[in-house]
# Entry
Amino acid sequence: MAAAAAAAVGGPQPPQAEVPAPGLALDKAATAAHLKAALSRPDNRAGAEELQALLERVLSAERPLAAAADGEEAAAAGGGGGPGAAEEEALEWCKCLLAGGGGYDEFCAAVRAYDPAALCGLVWTANFVAYRCRTCGISPCMSLCAECFHQGDHTGHDFNMFRSQAGGACDCGDSNVMRESGFCKRHQIKSSSNIPCVPKDLLMMSEFVLPRFIFCLIQYLREGYNEPAADVPSEKDLNKVLQLLEPQISFLEDLTKMGGAMRSVLTQVLTNQQNYKDLTSGLGENACARKSHEKYLIALKSSGLTYPEDKLVYGIQEPSAGASTLAVQGFASAAGTLGQLDSSDEEDQDGSQGLGKRKRVKLSSNTKDQSIMDVLKHKSFLEELLFWTIKYEFPQKMVTFLLNMLPDQEYKVAFTKTFVQHYAFIMKTLKKSHESDTMSNRIVHISVQLFSNEELARQVTEECQLLDIMVTVLLYMMESCLIKSELQDEENSLHVVVNCGEALLKNNTYWPLVSDFINILSHQSVAKRFLEDHGLLVTWMNFVSFFQGMNLNKRELNEHVEFESQTYYAAFAAELEACAQPMWGLLSHCKVRETQEYTRNVVRYCLEALQDWFDAINFVDEPAPNQVTFHLPLHRYYAMFLSKAVKCQELDLDSVLPDQEMLMKLMIHPLQIQASLAEIHSNMWVRNGLQIKGQAMTYVQSHFCNSMIDPDIYLLQVCASRLDPDYFISSVFERFKVVDLLTMASQHQNTVLDAEHERSMLEGALTFLVILLSLRLHLGMSDDEILRAEMVAQLCMNDRTHSSLMHHIPENPNPKSGIIPGSYSFESVLSAVADFKAPVFEPGGSMQQGMYTPKAEVWDHEFDPVMVILRTVYRRDVQSAMDRYTAFLKQSGKFPGNPWPPYKKRTPLHPSYKGLMRLLHCKTLHIVLFTLLYKILMDHQNLSEHVLCMVLYLIELGLENSAEEESDEEASACGPERCHDSWFPGSNLVSNMRHFINYVRVRVPETAPEVKRDSLASTSSDSLGSLQNSGTAQVFSLVAERRKKFQEIINRSNSEANQVVRPKTSSKWSAPGSAPQLTTAILEIKESILSLLIKLHHKLSGKQNSYYPPWLDDIEILIQPEIPKYSHGDGITAVERILLKAALQSRMNKRIIEEICRKVTPPVPPKKITAAEKKTLDKEERRQKARERQQKLLAEFASRQKSFMETAMDVDSPESDIPMEITTAEPQVSEAVYDCVICGQSGPSSEDRPTGLVVLLQASSVLGQCRDNIEPKKLPISEEEQIYPWDTCAAVHDVRLSLLQRYFKDSSCLLAVSIGWEGGVYVQTCGHTLHIDCHKSYMESLRNDQVLQGFSVDKGEFTCPLCRQFANSVLPCYPGSNVENHLWQRPSNKSIQDLIKEVEELQGRPGAFPSETNLSKEMESVMKDIKNTTQKKYRDYSKTPGSPDNDFLFMYSVARTNLELELIHRGGNLCSGGASTAGKRSCLNQLFHVLALHMRLYSIDSEYNPWRKLTQLLEEMSSQLGNEEQQPEVPILYHDVTSLLLIQILMMPQPLHKDHFTCIVKVLFTLLYTQGLVALSVKCNEEDRSAWKHTGALKKNTCDAEKSYEVLLSFVISELSKGKLYHEEGTQECATIIPVAWSPESMEKYLQDFCLPFLRITSLLQHHLFGEDLPSCQEEEEFSVLSSCLGLLPTFYQTEHPFISASCLDWPVPAFDIISQWCFEINSFTERHAEQGKALLIQESKWKLPHLLQLPENYNTIFQYYHRKTCSVCTKVPKDPAVCLVCGTFVCLKGLCCKQQSYCECVLHSQNCGAGTGIFLLINASVIIIIRGHRFCLWGSVYLDAHGEEDRDLRRGKPLYICKERYKVLEQQWISHTFDHINKRWGPHYNGL
# Structure
C-alpha cells in the first residue's frame, strides 16, 4: 500500500497503472485513511497534491463523455455512452474519502452529533401537507411541517392545514418568520451553546474533496447543455442530463441533511471565490477544462448576457461592457423581445415597432437598468450552480438541494444575493419556458423562503438594489407584450397597453415576479425605501400605466360578435395582482402621520402619470361613445392614497388635489364605468356576448370590489365634493343618456337611447346618485364599522355558511392590514350580527350545513339596501334581500304590507368631504326631482315604483343634510345669465320645496297631446340652448347647462381659453332629420314639490284627501320629533315622513302644507283609518278572492293526486296507507284491483294481461355484516389496530356450510342452510303498479330518449313513472281474490295428524309449470332478473356446478334474505308491532308467489323430504348409516330450522291454507326446541349435565312430561351420552367454555333467546301471507306474544304462573321416540368426528344489528394515518387513498396500480365486500363516495368544522369533527338500501374508481 501511495506522490500526473484497483472497497478505505493521515500533518502540501491528483482521475468529467466525438453529439453521447459505472465508482470514492477511511454511515452519524438543530428547514415539494398558524406567524407565508406542528402547542390558534402548491420549507425555529411560542419541542432550545465544537479532523477531508466534486457537477451541467437550435428547447436532452446527474445531486442533498456542521463546510465550498477561480477559469493546460469553459461562455452569450471581462481572453469583438452594449445590440428593438434570438425587428409590424421604440428608448435611457438586464459575472460555485439551475428550468432536485442549505445563515445571505443577481435572467428563462407553470412554482418555492424574512430583504435591498432590479425586470417583462391603446382617439393615441391575449398575461407567467414584489413590500423597511425613491416611483407609475385602459370593450351595435374573447380574466387578474396588491402593500405602511411625505410622493407621480395618459389619448372633455374599459389602476392608486391620507395621516385633502380641470377629467372614466354597468344590466351590450356581463360581475365581485369599484366610487365622491354640483349632476344624467327623458311633456324623443332601455337607465342613474351620496366606506367609517356593514349586507341577501361569508366579505387584500377574515374582529362582529343555525337533516336526506342568519335587530336597524345593491353580483340577490326583509316585518308584526327599502340615517361625513352634500342642494337636481315627481303623478312613460323610491330617498337625504338656516344670499347671487333662475329661487332644498312653478316651456313632438291643447304653443324652433327666458315659463336643458359650466371652469383656470376649448363637433344632441318636427309648448303646472308629494300620497293610498298633517292633532310632534334613525314602511309612510321633516325644518313649509291640505280637504278630521290599514284591507279582500279561485283548482288537482299520495313516499306516515295489494278488502270485492300508473286504468291482474309491482332488485351484504357484539368495530388508525372479519355473520355461515359439505352429502347440505348473507338479493318496491305491457312500451320510450341521467336503460333500469323512484324490474302480481284469504283463514278443527298428512300429500304433488301465458313468461323473466342481480359466486355453492340443488337453495334463500332484512329494518325485533315503515311497501307476497312457482318445479324425493324425518318414526335405524363409502345425509338436528320452514312453505301449492301453515310451524318448533336443548347440554360442564340428567329423569312419568324442559333436557343428555359427543373434552377444551351457573331462569331465558329469531321470521311471514297484524309488546314478552300469535300457545293457557317456553310444544309423534331417533344420527356422526359434531350443534343465533365502523372524533387522526399509508397491493402511497367504512380495507381510488381485469380497486372491493355497494371515505377530500353497481355518487361528508360546514377536498384545512347525526343517516341509508332513492346525483363510473 505504501508503495502505491509513494508512487502517487511522485508527480502531478501519476502513471495510470498505480491507481488502486477500482473494485476493492478495502483499498479505497486504506487510501482514504492514508490520505487523511497525510493531510493531518502540519506540513500537508504533499498530501494535498496527492489528493488533488487522485480526484482529478476519479472525478474527471472527460470519462463519461469521451466516448463521443466532439461537437454537437457530445450531449447525446453523454446521455447514451455507458457512464453509469464510472459515476457509481466516483461516488463510492467520494464517500470513502469523506469518511477518511472509516465507514460512511458511522461518519454520517458522527457529523449529525454536532448538529445545532435550531431550525427545522425541512424542504417539501408540491402536494405535501403542511400547516399554517396565523396566530404564531409573523410573515403571512409562514408554514410548518406536520411533525413540528403536532409537536408544538397550537390549541385555540387560528391555523389550517393546506396542500402545498409550489413546495415550501418548514419555518419552525426561525424567529424572523414566526413567534417563538409556536416552536415545537425539538426547536425550542437555543442549543448552540451546549453543542461541542466540531473536531477539526472530522470534516477535513470534506473541505478538500467537495470543491472538486461540485466542480465536476458543474462541468457535467456545462457539457450537457446545448443551446436549442430552434426556439424550441430540447427538453428531452435536458431531462436526460438531469437523470444522469440524479445520484450526484442526491448525494449533495444527503450531505445537507447531516446537519449544521456539514452545511457550514458546504457553504465555505460554495461561496469561496478563490477555489472557483482556480478550478474554472479555463486558463490551465487541461484541454477538457478549457473546452468546458468555452461551453459556459457560449451559454452565457446565447442567453443575451455578457461576461464583462472575457473579451481580453477570447477576443470577442465587443466594446467595453456597460452602457455601450445598448448601441451594439440595437437595444431599442431587442430589449422588448429579450432572450428570443435577435429577430425581433422583423417580427414587429411597422406601426407598433415605431411606437415600441418610442416607449422603450425612454425607459432604457438609464444605463443602470441596462446592466441589470444583461450583465452576469460568476464569482463562486454557488453563482454558477444557480445559473445552471435556471438554465435547466429549475429541476426539482437542484431546488431542493439549494433550499436544504438555507438553515446555514451565511449561506442564506450569499444565496439571496446570488438569486437577486440572477433575477433578470430568471425572468428571461421563464418567458421562454414551455413549462412556465412548473417553473413558476419552483421559483416561488425558492423566493418565498428568501424574501419573507424582513432582515434579509432589507439587507439585499440596501446592498444589491433589490427594488431597482425587481421593478426594472417587471417593466421589461411587460414591455414585450404592449400594443397601441384604442381608447378615445384611435388614430392618434400614443398610449400603449398590455395585450391581454398574450400568453404572458393569459397564463399568469408574471405571477412569480409580482408575488416576490408584493412579498418584499410587506416589510416596512423595504417599503419605506421604495416610497422615498422618486426614480423608482416614476418607473413604477410607468409600469402601472401599461395596464391603464387595457382590454377595451367596444359596444357592438349591429350583429352579435362572432368570437367571445375571454381575455378579461387575464385583465382582471393582472390588475389585481400586478397593480392593486402592491398598492395595498404600500398603503399598509402609510398608517401614521409621520408617513405623510410618502403619500405626497405617490400622489404627485400618480397625477403626473395620469396627466401623461390624458395627453397620450388626446382627451379633452367628452369620452368616446360606446367604449368602456374597467381598468383604471392609476385612478385607483390615486384614490386609495387620498383616502389613506385623510383617514390615517391627517393630511389636508385640498393640498393633494389637482385643479378643477384635472378633477373634471378624473371623474369622466370612472363615471363612464358606472354608466356602462347600468347599460350592461339593461341589456344594451347583449351583442358583445356573455363575457361583458362577466366583466360587470367581476368588477363588483368580492375579491375585486375593494380594488376596483370602491376606489372608483370614492374618487367620484371626491370629485363631486369639489366640483360645481350642477355640473356634476348634469354630467351624470348625460352619461346615463337619460337627459331627454327629463321633460314635463308626456312624449319626448331620445336620440341616444332606445325606449325600452330608458326606464332601467333612469333607475341606474338614480341608484348611482343614491350610492354616491349615502356610501361612507372611505368617508369616515372605521374598519370595524365597514366590516359590520359588509357582513350585514351579505347575510341579508342569504343565510351564509361561515366560509362563504369569509369568501364574500372583501378582505383588505394586504395580509398585514389587520382585518383578515378569521381574525378576532371578524368573529366578534359575526356573533354580534348573526345567529348560528346548526346543521339539520331533512327526511329527504338532503343535508344542510351550519348557517348564519341575521339577528332580528339587524333587520330592524341595520339592513342597508344601498350596501346590498353595491355588493350584489347577481341582481336577484337584491330581490332576495328585500323578500327576506318583507318576511321579517310580516312575521314580527311591524309592517303587514309590501315594504319599501328602509331609509337609514348615515354615519356622519368626515369634514374633508362635506362638499359632497352640495349635490343635494343644487337647482339641477331639484328640477330633476320635480320633473320626475310630476311625471309619476301624471303617469307618463310608466315610470317604476323603483324610480319613485329613489326620488323620495334623495329628497329625504336632502332634508337630513340641509344647511341649518335658509340662506338668502344664494338667491341674490344668481346673475341674470343663469338660464333657469326662475325655476327655483335658491339652492336650498328646504326652501325650494315650497316654491310653486306655474308654467314650463317644453319641446315636444308635433304629435304630442300638449300641442293640440295649448293655445300658447309658440312654433319657434330655436335651438335647445338659446331659448329666451320668458317671465311665465321655464325651460331647462341639462346639456347646455353642463357645457356652460365646463367652459366657465376652463376659462377660470386657463388664460388661453381659446386654444383649449374644442369646438363642439359632436352633433349627437341634435335630433336626426327623420324624426317628427319638435315644437315648443307651454304647460301649465302650478305645483310645488310639497303639493306633488301630497297628491302622490293620495294617489298611493288610492283615496282622496288621505293626507292629514299629524301635528294638527298632536302639536307635540313638532316640539319633540321622534324621528327614528331607521324607518320601515312603504311609499305612503315615506311621503308622510318627508312632509313631517319638511315641516320641522321650516315654519313656512309647515304653513304651506296645511294650506294645501285645506284646499284639497274640508277641515273635518277624517275617520281614523290610516292609509296603511286601508291598504291591508283592500289587499285582504283581493287575497280572499284569489284564495277561493285557487282552492277550486286545487280540489280538482287533489283528487287526481290522491291515489299517488296514498302510496307516496312520505317516510313517517302511519301504517294505515298500505298500498291496496296488501290491504284486505271487504268480502264483497271479489278480486284485488290494481291501478296502472302509466295508462291510468284500474283492474285486476289477469293471466293474459298481468299487472306488476315496480321493484328495485339489489344484491346486498348488509346481513353478512352483523356481528355478535353490540359495540361496533372501530376504524383502525394505527398499525396495531386491525379488523378481522372472522366474527361476522357471513363468515360464520360460510364456515358452517363448508364444514357440512366436508362430511355430508352435497344435495342434503344445500337444504340444511340458507345462503344470501353475502350477495343476497333484496327486493323493494315503491308500491306502485303498472301493466307489464305498458311497462315495456315505457322502456322503449326511455331507450329512445337520449338525455338520460344516471341510469342505464339497457340494464333494465328506469324510474317509477309516478314517484320517480329508481327501479330495475317488475314483479308480476298473482291473479287471485282477497276473499280466498278469508276462506282459507278460517280455522278448521282437523287434528294435527290429519294436517301433517295433508301437507305431505300436497308437497308430493309435482308442480307442473302453468301453461304458456303472459303471466308465466313474466314470472320466468323476473326470476332471471333476480338471479342476475347477484354475482355467480354468491349463487353457486354446490360441489357440482349447475346442479338444480343450487337453484333451489338460491330461491328459498332470497325469501330468507328479504325477511331477515325486514326484521333488521324493524330494529331486530318485532316489539313495535305493525307500524313499521318497512311493512308499508312490502312486496313479499308477490315475491313468494314467484318463488313458490319455481320451487315447485323441483320436487324433493319423498324419502329425502325432511318433513318425513320430522313427523314419522323410521323403522330400522341401523339402515340409516348407509354404506361407508357414500356420504350420509345431514342429521336433522344440524338443519337450520328457518330454512326448513321456507322450504316447506314454498313447496306447498299457493295460495296456502292457514291451517297448513300453523301445522308446519308447530312441527318445526319441536325440532327447534330440541336443538336448543342439545346446544344447552353441550355448553355446560360435566357436573351440571349429570345433575340435570338426574332431576329430569325423576319427572319423566308425570302427565305433561313432553312439555317440561327438564325432562326433555335430561332425555337428550342421556341419549347423547350414548355417543362420543361429551367424551372428547380434553383439558384444553374446558378452558374455552365459560363456567356459567345455570339456574332454571337463565336456562329458560337461553331457550327463549334460541327460539326467538325463528319466531320473528315466522311471524313476519304470516303477516305477509295472510295479512294479519303484528301485535306490539314489551321486549320481555316478545316470545309469548309471538308464540300465541302463531298459534303455538294453546288458547286456554293460563298466564298467572311464569311463562315457560316448553308449553308451546305440540309433538306430532311421541316426543321421546322422535328425539332418540334424531340423537341417533348425531351419535353416529360423532363416532368419527366428535369435535366437528359439537361445533355444528352450537349455533350462534343472537346476531346484533349491522353497523358501519365507528369513526374517531377528530378527522386529523384519520388523515395523518392514512394519507401517508402505503397500499398493501402495490406498496406505493396512493394518490387518492380511500378506506371502506364497512370493513376498514384501505384502497387506491382510481389507482391504475391495483387494477385487475379493467376493474379499479374501489369497484372491485365494492363487489367483494358489499356485493356491488361500497361506502368509501376519501382520505384527501373528507367526503364519502357511494358505489352502487355501475353507478356512483358523492354522498357528502360526515366530518364538519366548528361552524357546521363540510370541507370538501380539505381546501380550508380547518379541524373537522365527526357529525354523529350525519353518520347515523348514512348508516340508516346503507341498512335500509335506500341510497338509490335518496341521493340524486348519480353518474356511471365505468369501473374506473
Q: What stands out?
A: The two ends are 64 Å apart (CA to CA). Residues 118 and 187 are 5 Å apart (CA to CA). The first helix runs from residue 2 to 9. DSSP finds 80 helices and 31 strands in the chain.
